Amino acid sequence: MVLAIAESERVRGITSPNPPVGCVILDESGKAAGFGGTQPVGGPHAEVMALKEAGVKAQGGTAVVTLEPCSHYGRTPPCTEALIEAGIKHVIHAVSDPNPRAAGGADRLAKAGITVESGLLATEVSRGPLRAWLHYMRTGRPHVTWKYAASLDGRIAASDGTSQWISSETSRKEVHEMRAKLDAIIVGTGTVRKDDPALTARDADGMPLPRQPLPVVVGMSDLPVGAKLQDTALHLRTHHPDDVLTALVEQGVVDVLLEGGPTLAGAFWRAGRIDRVLAYIAPALLGDGPAAVLGAGVSTITDAVRLTVQDVTMSGPDVRISAVPEN
Amino acid sequence: MVLAIAESERVRGITSPNPPVGCVILDESGKAAGFGGTQPVGGPHAEVMALKEAGVKAQGGTAVVTLEPCSHYGRTPPCTEALIEAGIKHVIHAVSDPNPRAAGGADRLAKAGITVESGLLATEVSRGPLRAWLHYMRTGRPHVTWKYAASLDGRIAASDGTSQWISSETSRKEVHEMRAKLDAIIVGTGTVRKDDPALTARDADGMPLPRQPLPVVVGMSDLPVGAKLQDTALHLRTHHPDDVLTALVEQGVVDVLLEGGPTLAGAFWRAGRIDRVLAYIAPALLGDGPAAVLGAGVSTITDAVRLTVQDVTMSGPDVRISAVPEN
Fold it and tell me: Domain CMP/dCMP-type deaminase spans what residues (chains A, B) (predicted)?
């Protein structure tokens, strides 16, 4: 399953609105014979890719897959039929398919005499590569990760407005790699005026990475003439997060990074539309300057938005905290 | 040495201005025969305590000690002579004594035919139980740890001023245990007016722990009548951190916790008088309210006070970050 998760990570960012699934086919003796990840919409699913690589070695073998194989005719034939035809005897999947149209895959396989086991590394998969898609299936809304970089005392810029760079080169590189795996990045018109960002995913030499997310600008005002995002971004003239998310669903967007300033972040918090926080805390003090979020709808301590920390890691010298809202 | 460190931790908070040293005596076969920690000023040092417990078993044995044994006549006779008299053959210490009056212990022992080894777990000891004392020996000033609790977005209170409680019960308990190991706690008159703290170290049931630090209030204004600290605290009518630290040295204070508000923290930062930051970051968002430090003397990002993270741990649901200023 660890290898299947790696396969799914390889295709994360190219499959939306389909889930980025990974599959490994083991031959009868348990040796890995084929690897596959979901291809872009209309292309083969992970199971079909892995079966193709395994060829006749799939006969009598096992399919290890991050998501329950689908059993419906969508843009591609059902994966259950491909597994049965290839002579697979065992299927192990991490997460059951919550999609009512595609579910029932495990039942279909069992009826064909295949043993099916589910739940292996389910937490790793549902918090990892399938996090955004599972959220989208559950709520109908794209999954929103709010990312910011702040000093230890919670400032996102110095008092003169300068902020390049609070976080380390390692953290900025990590963010660029993250961008390349996402469907869209949102900023506000204020950030465009202040920073004139390109919102592209670039490598360490500043060269664009092969896959680029959709840049989205939110706000009523026009973009400044000559802004880098003027021709590339989807400009949504609204202030309400739900208008933004509805427009993004229409674009096939499932996994979103919110990189806007404190006002936009506050609007998303008040609307309850932030599903994860990624905070890069740089070991520095500014002692003045703006904070990461403004107006989260809290006026007294008992109303604080409480989160649960899921992960704390070092990103170079910075501390990276991943947290999700408590229900 | 791990056991010697544990001995030193047991006496941390009672030895200042002497160092909290721990010692383990191993008998000739390498078995632990005696344990000891430095007693309060005028009492026996760690080596003497451990030798006393080991008795005749010390003959031909090894002394494992966190600090190089002293070789001078101060309030007590030199530990080197006690080790020699007891028939110790080997001495292993973590940190060499930087105190010019007490140093030379290793030389004295070697001249008496004892093998001496230094540097074992030196980093653990110098960042751990001897951190404050080593700083004091190097600079002549008490070691200042600035501790604060903030939300993930860097607020130490909500917009209405409420702050009880941002951090978890686990973190607050940890702070009370830390207080009991320190010589003094500093707050400003503003914090006294706002929170009326007692600055005592209490257990989970609110009962005072056996050892209590000296409460210190800094600021020009009088304490409110009836304030809990009115009769117990040392009130220093100054705004300058160096005046505070000089007064504390006179009180035999080596290890200080700064728990003041943003203004006092800012003053200590501007003066370069913070030696360690302990930040308890609670996974909560406030979106408004004061930050942990105000006016650190930084106006643009390139002037940010840069720190190095030494340790990141979870304290219940909170993230605890320990960092020290870069030189």
Answer: 1-117
Burial class (CB in 10 A: 0-12, 13-18, 19+), A306: middle
Mean pLDDT of B59-72: 95
- State whether A288 and B294 contact (CB < 8 Å): yes
Q: A179 labelled as ligand-binding?
A: yes
* pLDDT, position A149: 95
- Residue A297 to residue B287, Cβ atoms within 8 A: yes
First to last CA, chain A: 29
Question: How many CA atoms lie less than 13 Å away from A245 in the CB half-sphere?
Answer: 24
Catalytic residues of A: 47
Asked if B160 and A299 come within 8 Å (Cβ–Cβ), the reply is yes
φ/ψ of A105, rounded to 5, equals -60, -45
Q: Which of residues 176-205 of A touch B (CB under 8 A)?
A: none
Domain extent listing, chain B: 2-131, 141-325
Pairing verdict, β A318-325 and A305-315: antiparallel
Nearest to A285 among B166, B293, B299 (CB): B293
DSSP H helical ranges for chain A: 2-11, 46-54, 79-85, 105-111, 122-127, 131-139, 169-179, 189-195, 241-250, 262-270
* Amino acid letter, residue B109: L
**Chain B residues within an 8 Å CB radius of A278:** none
| B32: β partners | B26
Q: To the nearest whole number, what is the mean pLDDT of chain A?
A: 93
Dist CA B235 CA A218 (whole Å): 53
Q: Provide the chain B residues 232-291 that lie in CB contact (below 8 A) with chain A.
A: 266, 269, 277, 279, 281, 283-288, 291
Report pLDDT digits (tens) over A89-133.
999 999 999 887 767 899 999 999 999 999 999 999 999 999 999
pLDDT digits (tens, 9 = 90+) for A123-143: 999 999 999 999 999 999 999
**Is there a contact between A277 and B301 if contact means CB atoms under 8 Å apart?**
no
Superfamily of domain B2-131: Cytidine Deaminase, domain 2 (3.40.140.10)
CB A272 within 8 A of CB B285: no
For residue A235, which phi and psi values (nearest 5 degrees)?
-100, 115
pLDDT tens per residue, range B272-282: 999 999 999 99
Q: Which of B159, B300, B308 sits opposite A317 (nearest CB)?
A: B308
CATH entry, B141-325, from 3.10.50.40, 3.30.559.10, 3.40.50.300, 3.40.430.10: 3.40.430.10
